[in-house]
Amino acid sequence: MPTAVRAFLDAPHAAALATLATIRPDGTPHVTPVRFTFDAAAGLARVTTRAGTRKARNVAAGGPMARGALCQADGFRWVTLEGRAAVSDDDTRVADAVRRYTDRYRMAPPAPPDLVVIEISVERVLSLNL
């Protein structure tokens, strides 16, 4: 991954939102604003959310074939991360996602009792103007 892309993904972007695209069970796309983190060593992008959200249910319904795409934009600079997606309520995975979110955004994410993490195993990286 190019250094400029890594730097863009590591930056706080505190006020910025990304978009997460998942596929509904009927095959139509669902796109929603999110905050996320990227772990280059593991090749994972993570989004914390409630278990009952449409995005979490889409990923769960997709099983091992579930896909996700995240797009972080800043003006005319952007990065899209695509790959297989999974949702987990494992305490260790959720805690790791919360820690990474807190580090990136300098604040903890919301902490509802049904907090889960969507993990995208990044297979493709697209970018412009980085």
Please explain how this structure is put together.
- The protein is of the alpha+beta class.
- The longest helix is centred in the C-terminal third of the chain and has 15 residues, at 91-105.
- Strand 1 (18-23) and strand 2 form a beta hairpin.
- The protein has 3 helices and 7 strands, in the order H-E-E-E-E-H-E-E-H-E.
- It is globular, with a radius of gyration of 14 Å.
- A 7-stranded antiparallel sheet has the order 2-1-5-6-7-4-3.
The gist of it:
This protein has 130 residues and is an alpha+beta fold. The protein has helices at residues 3-10, 54-62, 91-105; strands at residues 18-23, 29-34, 37-39, 44-50, 67-74, 77-88, 115-128. A hairpin with a 5-residue loop joins strand 1 (18-23) and strand 2 (29-34).
What is the gyration radius calculated from CA atoms? Answer: 14 Å
User: How many runs of DSSP E, i.e. beta strands?
Assistant: 7
Can you summarize the main beta sheet? 7 strands, antiparallel
Instruction: Please give the count of helices.
Output: 3
The end-to-end distance, rounded to whole angstroms, is 11 Å
Overall pLDDT confidence: 93
Structural class: alpha+beta
Roughly what fraction of the amino acids lie in strands? 35-45%
Task: Tell me the series of helices and strands, N- to C-terminal.
Answer: HEEEEHEEHE
Write down the overall geometry.
globular
Considering DSSP H and I runs of 4 or more, what fraction of the residues is helical? 10-25%
Taking pLDDT < 50 over at least 5 consecutive residues as the criterion, the unreliable ranges are none
Order of neighbouring strands in the sheet with most strands: 2-1-5-6-7-4-3
